[in-house]
Structures are given as C-alpha cells and as structure tokens.
Design a protein that fits this description.
Keywords: Aminotransferase, Pyridoxal phosphate, Transferase. Its cofactor is pyridoxal 5'-phosphate. The protein is 38% helix and 17% strand. It has 453 residues and is α/β, with parallel strands linked by helices. β11 and β12 form a beta hairpin. It binds pyridoxal-5'-phosphate.
C-alpha cells in the first residue's frame, strides 16, 4: 500500500493548485488495464489517462529496464555527453520513419514541447532556405496542440487561448473536416476535398509567402474525439502544402506510437508529413518523453545554417530514453501495434453496435484503438444534446462509478456537444474488450433516461 495514501485520502483537501482533486480516489497500484485505489477498488482503464499508458500499467520489463538504467546513470546532459538509450531510441525512430523520409529525432519531455520543437524547426528551416517571410502556421478549429504559449497559439479552442491572446500571436485556423456534417447529396470524398480546399483558401487569404506550415492531428484526439477524414483529404492537403511551399506537420502526440494500428499514424496514407510531433505513448507515461521526428535533409539544412537553436534541460535524458526504448521493445516484440489494429476493429464495431441501443450516440470515429464517439440530440441533423444535461461528465461519471474509465470532453466550439475517447492499452484482450463494452453499455444506460426526457 502506498504510504502516502492515508494522509491524502479521498475527500482530503489537496495542496496542489491546479485541478480540484479532492473528490477523486487515490490511485495506489496499476497493472495492465487495471488501476486500484486505496480502498481496494479496481478500475478498468479504457482511457490510458490522456491516451498515454499504451502498453498498460506497470509493465515489468519497462520497470526493470528503468531500474537497470537508474543503477547505471539517471541523467547526463546532452551538451556534455551522448548516451546509449537516446542514440538507440533515435535510431529506432529513424528506422520506423525511414519510409516517410523522417530520419532524425529530437527528444523532449512531452507533447507541448514536441509541438514547440516542431514549430522552431520549421521556422529555422525556412530561414536556412532564405524564406524568412514565412512564419504563420495554419491549424484546425477545433484542435488541441498543447498548453504552452506557442502550442496554444495553434490550439483551435478560443476558450483556451482567449485569456492569453494578448501575449501571443494566435495562428490562422481552418475548419476541422467533420465530413459527417456534409449537406445531403454531397459525397464523403467531395466533403473531404471541400475541407482541404479551405486550407488553400486560407493560405491565399494570408498571403502564401507568409505561411510556414500547416499542422493537424491525422486522427483527432481531445478536441475532436477520434476525427478521421477520408483518404483523399490527406493526399490533397499534402498537394496544397507542396503547391504553396508549406511544411506539413502531423501532431501524433496522441494518435501516434502505435495507437492507430500503425506505429506512425502517417503510415495509413501515402502522403508524407515533413515533421511529426510525438509524446504520450512514446514512453507510455512511465516517464515524461516527447520527440520531434523530422526529414533528415531539413535537419541537415538547419545544421548547415548554424544548428538547431532549441533545447530543454531534460532533452534526451538517459532514463527517459531507456524507458522509451523498453516501451518500444514491448510494443514490437509483443505485437501490440497489430493488436491495436485487430482489437480496435472489434471495439469500433461494438461501439457502432451501441448506436442501435442508444440513439443519442451521434457518430463513432477513429481507427485502431484511437476511437471516439459523440452524443447528439438528433444524430441525423447533428443537433447536440442541451448543454445543461452535461452528457460528457454525466456519462463518464456513470462509467467511473461502475469502475470504467473513459475520457470525456465538451466539444470546444460549442456546436457539437460532448464527445468521448475510448482508448484502452494496446495489449487489451478479447475478454477485456468485452468487459469495456459491457461497462460502457451500463454507463450509457444510466444516462439514457435523461437523454430521452
Ligand atoms: N498535441 C496533442 C494532439 C495532444 O493530445 C496533447 C495533449 O493532450 C498535446 C499536444 C500536449 O501534450 P502535453 O500535455 O504532453 O504537453
């Protein structure tokens, strides 16, 4: 038992100042898909926190690899020393990125830092090419790219960025491709191309010579609940970026590292991004770790122009990278990426099945185990449930009370109601998928009378 539990138990005031944690139980143990609290209650973690613990909780191989690294050396500063785990992990990412032309990795400590690193690399590459007029980065609305001021300027959520707006340069936004909301008679592909055209229109509106890059999550997470576009969208976006000299950045902080059923989410499409931001599943939350994976020639050009002017104290620390390597070993050796594709298909079909039972489920979205759904008063007309029903928190709480953790979010633009991510670890079994679906059905059932009222 965690020795800290008695003092900081449930309903005890917390000294932490960010989220109110007083009414949450105290997590004391994790194993695989399960977390136990200090009262011995077991929770099925079908969220992986914010889609982070992709190999499940407390995998012994990762814990042992971290312990072994700690016995050798916990920290060595990258300006003073190379270290084996960072070099090897970069090689492994370069091998995985090779087919996409992404062969150089920079390490940091999380998703926001990875996005900042991507922004800085893009800008420095433009400067190296003599394109210093390019500085704007177009992103999508809604979207989430992180909470630091640079990443927040890309985040498509006015409620999040508005308080800080005077302190940063909010970047241009285009609508996220909610193809499901297309007018009657328009095909999915035509709608996807219309959404892609919004990018070109915005580039022209901004002045192409001022636009540096376009950033998007290839499968959307917190802001869009598993939003994925038809294949034509990805190809057309790449084409538009090429036509106007923009870099294409994929934010795979949430959908990457195997969760989508491919190690890099970008592998689902022929089009190649120039930079990928990674974090979360990279070291699966065992330690903080993020990465910027980039085209080798871009990094070379930036080096030739004087070097990559960016970094953090913890960049490429040996302990974080040893954990990342061990997580990668578990993913690859245990076939978890393929398992994510297989179990994800089953879970998606089961979620779609729940649409028959619960008419308030609007749309099931995503690929692999990067899955989500939203809730609507009218599925066909895409009319959200009244906000006062608090469907997101009510359903997530009903599930929580039954021992199932899913991730809920109020849609940021206020137009689309609430949505959920159902994102269990990538080693989830058939039996556990069944357990998740049963508990979810019960949680949705608890809420159903309110939706019908
Ligand atoms: N980008 C995406 C797509 C994310 O989902 C997140 C976090 O949820 C971030 C960036 C920011 O990552 P972090 O919270 O590690 O800073």
């Amino acid at each position: 038992m965690n020795e800290f539990a008695p003092r900081h138990g449930r309903n005890q005031p917390s000294s932490m100042f960010f989220w109110p944690t007083a009414d949450r139980p105290v997590a004391v143990r994790g194993e695989g898909i399960f977390i136990w609290d200090d009262e011995g209650r077991r929770y099925v973690d079908a969220s992986c926190g914010p889609q982070t613990t992709n190999i499940g909780h407390n995998n012994r191989r990762v814990v042992e690899a971290m312990r072994a690294q700690m016995d050798d050396i916990c920290f060595a500063f990258r300006s003073h020393f190379k270290n084996g785990p960072a070099e090897t992990l970069a090689d492994r990412l370069a091998d995985l990125g090779q087919d996409k032309g992404l062969t150089r990795a920079f390490f940091c400590s999380g998703g926001s830092e990875a996005v900042e690193g991507a922004i800085k690399l893009a800008r420095q590459y433009a400067l190296a090419k003599g394109e210093g007029t390019r500085y704007k980065i177009i992103s999508r609305l809604p979207s989430y790219h992180g909470s630091t001021l640079g990443a927040l300027s890309l985040t498509g959520d006015p409620a999040m960025f508005a308080p800080f707006a005077p302190m940063m340069q909010i970047q241009p936004k285009i609508p996220a491709p909610f193809v499901v909301e297309r007018p009657e008679g328009e095909s999915e592909d035509a709608a996807a191309l219309r959404f892609a055209q919004a990018l070109e229109d915005e580039i022209i509106n901004q002045g192409p010579s001022t636009v540096l890059a376009f950033i998007m999550e290839p499968i959307g997470g917190a802001a869009t609940g598993g939003l994925i576009a038809p294949d034509v969208y990805y190809a057309r976006v790449r084409e538009i970026c090429d036509r106007h000299g923009l870099l294409l950045i994929y934010d795979e902080v949430m959908c990457g590292s195997g969760r989508s059923g491919k190690y890099l989410c970008a592998e689902h499409w022929d089009a190649n991004p120039d930079i990928i931001a990674m974090a979360k599943g990279l070291a699966a939350g065992y330690v903080p770790l993020g990465a910027v994976l980039a085209r080798g020639d871009m990094v070379e050009a930036v080096y030739d122009a004087g070097g990559y002017a960016h970094g953090h104290t913890y960049s490429a620390g040996p302990l974080a990278c040893a954990a990342g390597l061990a997580v990668m070993d578990v993913l690859m050796e245990d076939g978890l990426v393929a398992n994510a594709a297989r179990q994800g298909a089953k879970l998606k079909a089961a979620l779609e099945g729940l649409m028959d039972e619960f008419p308030f489920i609007g749309e099931v979205r995503g690929r692999g185990l990067m899955l989500g759904f939203d809730v609507m008063a009218d599925r066909k007309k895409r009319i959200p449930l009244p906000p006062e029903l608090n469907a997101g928190s009510e359903i997530a709480q009903a599930c929580y009370d039954r021992g199932l953790i899913i991730y809920s979010r109020r849609m940021l633009d206020g137009l689309r109601g609430d949505h959920f991510l159902v994102t269990p670890p990538l080693n989830v079994t058939d039996e556990e998928i069944g357990m998740i679906v049963d508990l979810l059905r019960q949680g949705l059932g608890d809420f159903a009378p309110k939706a019908a009222a």
